[in-house]
Amino acid sequence: MAHYTLVTSWQLDAPVDRVWDALLRSAEWPEWWRGFRSVERLASGDDDGVGMRLRQRWRSLLPYTLTLDLEILRVEQQRRLEGRSSGDMAGTCTWTFEARDGGTLVGFVMDVRPTKAWMNLPLPFSGKIVALNYQALMRWGRDGLAARRGQRTVDEAVRAGLAGA
Fold it and tell me: What is the value of pTM for the model shown?
């Protein structure tokens, strides 16, 4: 079974509270994050958001829409969000937020396994396809967030890796 560790780092020219606020408003993602088809709230969770469940549908470069259900497991206000994903990709997701150089360093790590049999075919180039798809989606998110907030991106790194296929 394939296993992917997908890592993103954005340096945005905006304060942490503004970036945090924009990313917590997940229902608005399709308005500014190219590739997101929909985000539906399945459960609200507690006052901090722990237990919140979201169904996300997104499409990047490939003509296939992925559906991920995300449950928020841990919230550290304006510092960290941790969740568990299920659906087309099962595993964990972590967002981190750090004030840096007058802006915000945003980190996102997905450690997931595809759940569909066809996604686990032993193709030598499958990791590259997943990486390209993921990189495009995250670049669109970075650019969309910066444009929505009237800010610029300072730096960006998106990495995707195939671990133990």
Answer: 0.87
